[in-house]
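User: Could you go from structure to sequence for me? I need the amino acid at each position, not a summary. Structure tokens:
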């Protein structure tokens, strides 16, 4: 209310009072639209960031909003955007705005076919890699905005460098949201950036409708134990109880062995610790890079004794993957989490979705 009152003092009539875009699940951003501006606030975009970033989209270069004088000015209509994450590409693509892309990072890992065509024709350039951005090329492309992300305060080094080059950078923190629908709701942020608010609302409402309808199909009594990931050099990284994958397992009607650990990030466990909790696991999803059950048990012969391995109940999320390794699960899956949920419900409770065809997942072959 305080923000709106400050804005109200900048307007000429009550009919011009800015409106805040209502959010159902996301907490990492806010959007306030006025008569001739849009203010986007990105809140704590990485763990312990304790920092907010504000962006004012307007054609009035001199406009300042009381209490938001430090907001980065952006043109009201963005024409050239650089995306440093595949999720940014997916959000823009869902809104029909991928034509605004002039560069992406790690272009070989993009799944979207239209964007891949733009990369092949060099309409869309490479901005380098996450760890080694091509600052010279980014500057030459003269983007209106760089969409970035940070995992810790080290992000500020590249942020400050781009800012010193007079290039606007917006950190996107959708991955920090607690729920899949919270992540998906970030499409409203992209809708505000591209003047596609109505379309963004429509897409998200449909996602919610399908997601919640799928939840109703999940049996309330049977919860098969489900494990994920795979050991690597004696270490098995598993998501904490509040992690992305563990949340999906629980919502799809599975029992996750580490659900009691209220952690978002990955847990670094020994092979023995995970194996001890997995002796009766009925399903195994996302088993690393293994392309067959045979390849997986080469890691450790003891894996062959697990019930899920004996029954062949192993599923990997690379059904939509490019030759170079671009995986649509981590691209459009963030925009359309109901597809992920349906896949997992069909895996754990096949009777709930008879005749269903997997979208992101496939059964791991034996050989």
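Assistant: Here is the amino acid at each position, in order:
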């Amino acid at each position: 209310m305080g923000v709106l009152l400050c804005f109200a003092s900048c307007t000429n009539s009550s009919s011009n009072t800015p409106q805040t875009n209502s959010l159902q699940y996301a907490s990492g951003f806010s959007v306030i639209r006025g008569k001739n501006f849009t203010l986007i606030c990105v809140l704590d975009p990485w763990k312990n960031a304790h920092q907010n970033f504000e962006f004012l989209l307007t054609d009035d270069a001199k406009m300042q909003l009381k209490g938001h004088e430090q907001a980065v000015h952006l043109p009201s209509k963005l024409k050239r955007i650089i995306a440093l994450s595949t999720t940014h590409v997916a959000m823009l693509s869902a809104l029909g705005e991928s034509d605004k892309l002039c560069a992406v990072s790690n272009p070989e890992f993009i799944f979207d076919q239209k964007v891949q065509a733009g990369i092949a024709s060099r309409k869309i350039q490479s901005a380098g890699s996450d760890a080694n951005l091509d600052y010279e090329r980014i500057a030459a492309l003269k983007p209106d905005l760089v969409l970035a992300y940070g995992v810790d305060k080290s992000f500020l080094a590249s942020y400050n460098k781009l800012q010193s080059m007079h290039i606007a950078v917006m950190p996107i923190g959708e991955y920090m949201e607690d729920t899949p629908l919270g992540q998906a709701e970030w499409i409203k942020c992209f809708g505000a950036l591209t003047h596609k608010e109505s379309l963004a609302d429509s897409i998200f409402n449909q996602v919610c409708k399908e997601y919640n309808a799928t939840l109703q199909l999940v049996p309330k009594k049977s919860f098969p134990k489900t494990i994920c990931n795979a050991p690597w050099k004696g270490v098995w990284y598993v998501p904490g109880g509040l992690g992305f994958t563990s949340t999906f397992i629980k919502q799809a009607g599975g029992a996750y062995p580490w659900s009691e650990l209220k952690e978002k990030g990955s847990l670094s466990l020994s092979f023995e610790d995970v194996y001890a909790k997995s002796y009766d696991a009925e399903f195994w999803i996302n088993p690393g890079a293994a392309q067959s059950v045979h390849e997986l048990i080469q890691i450790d012969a003891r894996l062959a004794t697990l019930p899920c391995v004996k029954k062949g109940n192993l599923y990997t999320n690379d059904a939509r993957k490019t030759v170079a390794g671009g995986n649509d699960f981590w691209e459009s899956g963030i925009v359309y989490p109901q597809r992920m949920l349906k896949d997992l419900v069909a895996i754990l409770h096949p009777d709930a979705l008879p005749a269903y065809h997997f979208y992101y997942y496939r059964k791991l072959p034996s050989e």
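One structural detail worth keeping in mind: Residues 217-363 form a domain with the Rossmann fold fold (CATH 3.40.50.1980).
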